[in-house]
Design goal:
Elements (H helix, E strand, L loop, with lengths): L1 H15 L20 H15 L5 E5 H7 L4 H7 L11 E2 L5 H8 L9 H5 L1 H8 L2 E3 L7 E3 L12 H4 E5 L3 H5 L18 E6 L4 H19 L1 H32 L4
Antiparallel strand pairs: 1-2, 3-4, 5-6
Helix pairs in contact: 2-10, 7-10, 10-11
The protein binds heme C.
Protein name: Cytochrome c1
Keywords: Heme, Iron, Membrane, Metal-binding, Signal, Transmembrane, Transmembrane helix
Organism: Marinobacterium weihaiense
Length: 256
């Protein structure tokens, strides 16, 4: 039954995904590449280290990811599974109790297995790069695509402290013409790093790219599978063609 529901959710998800952010903010687009195993591996590393303290990916097994991303099980066990009670065949569950999380953050951190499918990869990519300083919020940050979000900017040490130079209206519509776009890439130049983090803006974009690439993989692991299958089918058809052609020649030999 659970499996059926997930399948149903996956089938219906694209209908609910919208191109724009929650507040109608224009989104930066991302060109995901599920064949880039190195990127997916880096993304999984970031996800496990930086997201799973609060979120889980309850429909994704470590072992399946290891297999799809071409990582040896031993390495995954050694570097990506922190809980001694978790086994490689287990789902990627969070150690945090849901009731605690709801109490701390106002809203519980949702399961992220299908997030990129529900919101769209562009949305997730933009969301993770759109936190900015806002002293009126409990965590001292707000988010351009998810106003008044309950999540802190957990990657601030990498990205740095980001300041919004636009009015709320400008921010909601993707920036202002008066702001030099060269000084900042996010939200039409509204959001700029004021205090540098440990990564340059380019490195940070790459980190988020890898992370969203991995989240996109989690949302549709079957796409990897069908890409692999597709190649096999083409090879099979090519071989079949050779035989069919030889057979045809054989049949028609006596007719001519
Ligand atoms: C300290 C806890 C915490 C960590 C760590 C954390 N998040 Fe969150 N996240 C939350 C909470 C709480 C919410 C719910 C916010 C709300 O609904 O207001 C949330 C919401 C989200 C959402 C939006 C969900 C929606 O409503 O569609 C996304 C996407 C997300 N987180 C991604 C991530 C990613 C990716 C990471 C790792 C880089 C991460 N989060 C790390 C607490 C956390």
């Amino acid at each position: 039954m659970k499996k059926f529901l997930i399948t149903l959710m996956m089938a219906l998800a694209p209908m609910t995904a919208s191109a724009a952010g929650g507040a109608g903010v224009p989104l930066d687009s991302i060109d995901v590449d599920l064949t880039d195993k190195a990127s997916l591996q880096r993304g999984m590393q970031t996800f496990v280290n930086r997201c799973m303290g609060c979120h889980e990916a309850g429909y994704q097994r470590f072992e399946r990811a290891a297999q799809d991303l071409e990582m040896p099980n031993e390495l995954v066990e050694q570097y990506l599974i922190f809980d001694p009670n978790t086994k490689i065949g287990d789902h990627m569950k969070s150690a945090m109790a849901k009731e605690d999380a709801a109490g701390w953050f106002g809203a519980p951190p949702p399961d992220l297995t299908l997030e990129s499918r529900l919101r769209g990869s562009d949305w997730v990519y933009t969301y993770l790069r759109s936190f900015y300083k806002d002293e009126n919020r409990p965590w001292g940050v707000n988010n351009a695509v998810f106003p008044d979000v309950g999540m802190p900017n957990v990657l601030e040490d990498l990205q740095g402290k980001v300041v919004n130079y636009c009015t709320p209206e400008e921010l909601a519509h993707g920036g202002s013409e008066e702001i030099d776009p060269l000084t900042g890439k996010t939200m039409g130049g509204c959001l700029k790093v004021q205090e540098a983090g440990s990564q340059t803006p380019e490195e940070f974009d790459q980190t988020i790219y890898d992370l969203v690439n991995f989240m996109t993989y989690m949302g549709e692991p079957s796409r990897l599978e069908s890409e692999r299958l597709g190649t096999k089918v083409l090879i099979f058809l090519a071989i079949l063609f050779v035989f069919a052609f030889a057979l045809k020649k054989e049949f028609w030999k006596d007719v001519h």
